[in-house]
Amino acid sequence: MAALIPGDDWPRWGRVVLKPFTYGLSAAEWRWFWESFRDPEIAEWNGNRPLRMPLWLFKRVVASEIKRGDRIGFAILDENGDWLGTLELYDGGRGEATLGIIIGRKDRWGQGYGREAVRALLGYAFERLGLAKVKLRTFSHNERARRAFRAAGFRETGTASLPGGKQDTLMEITREEWREAGRSGRD
After folding, report:
1. Which segments of the chain are extended strands (E)?
2. How far apart, in whole angstroms, are the C-alpha atoms of residue 63 and residue 70?
3. Per-residue pLDDT reduced to its tens digit, 105-118
4. Deepest of 5, 7, 49, 55, by most Cβ within 10 A of its Cβ?
5. Is the overall model pTM greater than 0.90, yes or no?
6. Which helix (H) or strand (E) holds 147?
7. What stretch of H or E contains 36?
C-alpha cells in the first residue's frame, strides 16, 4: 500500500487526524497504544485476551508488522493532538481492504470520535489509495460500533458464527457508495 506524506497531508475528518505509524509514535502514544491492548474490556471488544507482553516487545512486534507493508496503521488524534486509539487497513488486495479500529481512551467512547476516524480512513482509502471496497467485521452484540459504522456509510452484508456462540456482523462500503452519499466532502 502507498505511503503517506507527513503533516498536512495526513487523513483528517471533523475533530480527528490520523497520524501514520510510519511517521513514528511518541513515547506517550506508544504507552497509550500498549495500555489499550492490556485493558480487559477493550481486549474483550476486540475479541482477544488482554496483552501480557512488555512494552519493548510490543513495539518490536508492531514495528515488524509495519515493515511488512501489508497493512497501514494510524494513531487517531483528537482536536488537541491527544491520542485516542488506532485504526488500520489490512488484508489489502484486489482493490479492497479490511478496516480495524480501537478507541483506547474509554473516557472518549460515545462522543463520535470513532465515526470521524472511520470517515477519515475511508476518504484516504477511496480517494488516495483508489480502493474499490472497504470491509470489516464487528461483534453482532456491539450495537454501538454497528451504529457508528452505519453512520459512516457501511452496510451490513451478513453474519459469521464465532466460537462460544457469538456472532460477527459483516459490513462493507464501496467507493461508489461513498461518493453517492457525498462522503468525499468534509463535515
Report:
1. 12-13, 16-20, 72-77, 83-93, 96-103, 133-139, 155-161, 167-174
2. 12
3. 888 888 889 889 99
4. 55
5. no
6. helix 143-151
7. helix 27-38
Spatial CB neighbours of 160, under 8 Å, sequence gap ≥ 6: 137, 167, 168, 170
Question: Could you report the per-residue pLDDT of 146-173, keeping only the tens digit for each?
Answer: 888 998 899 999 999 888 788 889 999 9
**Percentages (nearest 5) of helix, strand, coil residues in the chain:** 40, 30, 30
With a CB cutoff of 8 Å and minimum separation 6, the contacts of 19 are: 10, 25, 29, 74, 75, 76, 77
CA–CA gap between residue 103 and residue 68 (Å, rounded) = 24
CA angle 97, 100, 101 (to 5 degrees): 145
Buried b (16+ CB within 10 A) or exposed e, 65-84: ebeeeebbbbbbbbeeeebb
Biggest CA–CA distance in the chain, Å, is 46
Going from N- to C-terminal start, the domains of the chain cover: 9-131
Phi, psi for residue 105 in degrees, rounded to 5 = -95, 95
The order of strands in the sheet holding 96-103 is: 12-13, 16-20, 72-77, 83-93, 96-103, 133-139, 167-174, 155-161
How far is it, in rounded angstroms, from Cα 73 to Cα 158?
26
Gap between the Cα atoms of 163 and 150, Å rounded? 25
**Which residues lie closer than 8 Å to 180 by C-beta, 6 or more apart?**
none
Task: Look at domain 9-131 and name its CATH class.
Answer: alpha beta
